[in-house]
Specification:
By secondary structure, the protein is of the alpha/beta class. It has a single domain, classed as Glutaredoxin (3-Layer(aba) Sandwich), CATH 3.40.30. Helix content is 39%, strand content 19%.
Length: 187
């Protein structure tokens, strides 16, 4: 009987805390869904929060990175291309967001799928007056397909633990109060 008592207590604690965590996660998901309006109307919240892919992409020097390179921060990863008209419109807003959150636990990165690479990216950014965004390249388009970027722009929100929290297909007003509130809710 003495052996069963600690085992029974352990099972009770495990059941209690796992249901407590489930309720917290469920409430967290519900809280995030409240932001699915206005500029974030197409926001898809990942209830299962899968791990972000480890597929690599490159910076302008050719160094390899993955979405896990930034673990510990909330990542706003925007997939785009120079030929994408809505991307042209939202890039300045992404740069404004990057400035607004520079001192927070949030990192804004952009990942171009342009096959010609920085040869076409740099003139595009210069033309629209974007100078400070962190720009990476997924020339193979492999990562964008893995994260479900079925159209451009597509933005993936990744939590500090490296799990995918949400995806937005289409443009958004990234420097809006609504977006900032949403990102702060994830922390």
């Amino acid at each position: 009987m003495k052996l069963y008592t600690p085992l029974l207590m352990l099972i009770t604690l495990v059941v209690f805390f796992s249901s407590y965590n489930f309720k917290n996660k469920s409430q967290f998901i519900d809280d995030l869904k409240e932001y699915s309006f206005g500029t974030l109307a197409n926001l898809e919240i990942f209830e299962d929060q899968p791990a972000a892919p480890r597929t690599s992409f490159k910076d302008r020097e050719g160094n390899n990175f993955s979405l896990h390179s930034f673990t510990g921060k909330i990542i706003v990863a925007n997939f785009w291309a120079t030929w994408c008209v809505p991307c042209r419109v939202e890039m300045p807003d992404l740069e404004k967001l990057a400035r607004l959150v520079a001192n927070e636990n949030i990192k804004v990165i952009t990942i171009s799928i342009d096959r010609k690479g920085f040869e076409v990216i740099d003139p595009f950014l210069n033309d629209i007056g974007v100078e400070e965004l962190e720009v990476y390249l997924d020339q193979s388009n492999r990562l964008s397909l893995e994260v479900g970027a079925i159209g451009l722009p597509t933005t993936l929100i990744i939590g500090p633990s490296g799990k995918m929290v949400a995806r937005l297909v289409g443009p958004a007003k990234w420097d809006s109060g609504q977006v900032l509130s949403f990102l702060n809710k994830i922390q």
